[in-house]
Design goal:
By secondary structure, this protein is mainly alpha-helical. 77% of the residues lie in helices and 0% in strands. The model has no long low-confidence stretch (mean pLDDT 92).
Amino acid sequence: MNNHLFQSVNQLAGNYPMLDWFMAFVTQKALFIYIALFVLMWVFGSDKRKYTVFLAGCTGLLALMINAAIGEFYFVQRPFVVHDDVHLLLPHAADASFPSDHTTGAFALSFGVFLFYRKLGAVMILFAALTGISRIYVGHHYPLDVIGSIVAALAASAVVYKYRRYLDPIPRRFIDFYHRIPFFQKKEEKRSL
């Protein structure tokens, strides 16, 4: 069933140039889009948004550590290694397929924001889902790789959210330090006038 679902998505690749371009763009640029959004949230957002960015980053880091641990004990070959009929739109190393790091990172960052900002987080979760679909579309991952990524991201976000009080001093110090930087102090003073 996993392979059947993979083929039903991946078989679209190579038939629709605009869709191919869009899916390749999402797969390659999702991380940069998240980084750009987080920079904007940090620079122009309130202290609560800065705090959210920090915790979401911790969530992403923990989720990727979970992925690395899974990869050490459970190795799944990528679809293009196992099957000859994969429409591989972008080259990729033949490393572990399960779970998808791209998708895990996208969902972990999205869940991290969703816990504090429901509307923005919901939009980010939709983009994370699109990222996961794009990973299947371009031939890099199976659907179960994406599902495993969502589970890893959920686990990481639950842990970080539950134990956030222990992390609190760290983002508070970062935010205080940021406010003490003269260049950013002036910008904040101008904005508050």
